[in-house]
Give the backbone structure.
Amino acid sequence: PRSHAIQGGRFLQLMAAALLISAFVFLSVMAPPSELGTASAAPQRFRLRSHHKNGARAFANRQMMAPLLRHSMGYLPYMDRCERIATRVNADGEKKEPEFFSASIDSIEPACKGGNVYSVVVDSPRTSAKYEKAGQYAQMRVGDSKPGFFAMANKPGSRKLEFLIKTVDGTAGIINQMKPGDSLDISDALGNGFPWDRISDNDVYSDGTYVFATGTGFGPIRAMIESGLFKGRKNLKIYYGVRDEEQMPFKDEFSKWMEQGLLGAVNGSDSPIIPVFSCEQNGYVQDVAVFGNDIDPEKATAVICGHWDMTGKLKERLTKELGMPAENILTNF
């Protein structure tokens, strides 16, 4: 089986790394007697090196071995990645290179007053049919452009797909310049989405659900909200980070969500959505999040959707500062 082959490959890589380390250390402190400048008094193949004539040789040995050592050690994390890829392919039947299908732009509009973020609606019945969980994504390309990864911003079950796309170089910028009716290529819905089933019991997880999203990362959170996943959720807080209020997509929908009961078990009219503006003094979501002192971390949960740096810092805070179990923290990747 592939898993056995991977385990065998990992073992060989570890052995090779260990041998290279040993050789590196050995060559750093030993040298042939012919280079020591004196005759060997005993029939030994190697003697402790001196610090004059053979120094250059030892240095050369280290210089020769160092790239090999780095190259070998570099395979270790790669083996982990290979294992994850192989597992995904075996378990889910997904291909490394997804198939693409023709689709068309249904509408494209600015998602907020300021900035360069657009709400792009794509008509693709095939991809829509495969979209089952908030947090899933699709790859899109235009012509021979490099495929980009875009998470769905509307709830599953619709015939059309909505994406929150920021104008940057590459495919995202090309898509944001298109018009309704224009064609592009799209893959099936990919990824497993947010594993909400793991923390879905409102009675068990009743000591707070902390949601963190920045920029276009709020798109998948919107899909969660409109899917009704936060209904009845106690102590829900949604930290939504953008540059400023003018660059906050979907803010006009907050009141509607409140009226529909989609934002947890809210007392009164206070929205659980907490805007965080990076251009002002309140900073970034990973820095301003406040956790209660009386929370049972085993009964608290979190959802994170944003860039890698934010995700890493928040996971560290949640696990170390709050003591939240790692399995209570959801991401969509």
Notes: The longest strand covers residues 101-110. DSSP finds eight helices and 13 strands in the chain. The two ends are 26 Å apart (CA to CA). Residues 215 and 330 are 18 Å apart (CA to CA).
